[in-house]
């Protein structure tokens, strides 16, 4: 196996991806290149339809690119069978979406505990870590509440805590504050940043919020299917 760039959490090389469009094909990624190191926070800023979600899905091993290479947490994932890709995704990648996708019948704490239990952690240890993560996200005082009793910003705090529950190497977030008012978005982002800085996690965050983008380490965009630095 060839050697990976030092401390690389995510790498894309020559990624090409298209969707079917009637008889033809709509090429969205046309040779995307990207490398994100451990501890780095990168903003992905591009207009709607540019391919941000497509890029995040490919980076998170939810979708296979037509061509090109995807490296996650030191693994070349292109040639891996589906089962192995799923394992790498579960162990190494956390996702946050614009909508929280929390389980409605479970408390905030249980939503963070559950993925850890599925990964084999003992209840006490999972609860200890769950409380710690909720505290980082400044939502520990709502640990016993179900999502329906939480505000939009509070739900996203829980969703972020859940995404990092199993200590991934890479956090991918698709417009995580897109549904929040600017003040709440800023506060949720502050908590996310504290968590990321404490854990050395690499993050790639698609956002339309330029103010938040400027608080990250680096900004990239998509220009005609390729990644460009901003
Ligand atoms: P963004 O997240 O930047 O808004 P997307 O990655 O969601 O962009 O989509 C990029 C383009 O690909 C859009 O034109 C979209 O309509 C198209 N697209 C996305 N997903 C699919 C799909 N499953 N099938 C067909 N076209 C798709
Ligand atoms: Mg999108």
Largest β-sheet summary: 6 strands, mixed
Bound molecules: adenosine-5'-diphosphate, magnesium ion
Outline the low-pLDDT stretches.
none
Spatial extent as radius of gyration: 17 Å
DSSP strand tally: 10
Content-based structural category: alpha/beta
User: Helix and strand succession?
Assistant: EEEHEEHEHHHEHEHEE
**Count, helices:** 7
The order of strands across the largest sheet is 6-7-8-3-9-10
Written overview of the protein:
There is one protein chain. By secondary structure, the protein is of the alpha/beta class. Helices cover 34% and strands 28% of the residues. The chain contains 7 helices and 10 strands. The model has no long low-confidence stretch (mean pLDDT 95). Bound molecules: adenosine-5'-diphosphate and magnesium ion. The site of magnesium ion has 3 residues, from helix 1.
């Amino acid at each position: 196996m060839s050697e990976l760039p030092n401390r690389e959490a995510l790498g894309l090389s020559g990624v090409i991806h298209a969707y079917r469009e009637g008889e033809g094909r709509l090429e969205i990624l046309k040779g995307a290149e990207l490398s994100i190191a451990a501890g780095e926070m990168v903003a992905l800023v591009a207009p709607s339809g540019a391919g941000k979600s497509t890029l995040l899905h490919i980076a998170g091993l939810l979708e296979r690119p037509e061509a090109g290479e995807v490296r996650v947490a030191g693994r070349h994932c292109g040639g891996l069978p589906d089962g192995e890709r799923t394992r790498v995704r579960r162990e190494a990648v956390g996702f946050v979406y614009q909508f929280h996708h929390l389980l409605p019948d479970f408390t905030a704490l249980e939503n963070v505990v559950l993925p850890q239990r599925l990964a084999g952690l003992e209840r006490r240890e999972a609860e200890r870590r769950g409380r710690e993560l909720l505290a980082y996200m400044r939502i520990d005082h709502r640990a016993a509440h179900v999502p329906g009793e939480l505000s939009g910003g509070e739900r996203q705090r829980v969703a972020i805590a859940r995404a990092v529950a199993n200590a991934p190497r890479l956090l991918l977030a698709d417009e995580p504050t897109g549904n929040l008012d600017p003040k709440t978005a800023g506060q949720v982002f502050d908590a996310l940043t504290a968590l990321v800085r404490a854990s050395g996690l690499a993050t790639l965050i698609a956002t339309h919020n330029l103010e938040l983008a400027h608080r990250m380490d680096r900004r990239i965009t998509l220009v005609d299917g390729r990644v460009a630095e901003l």
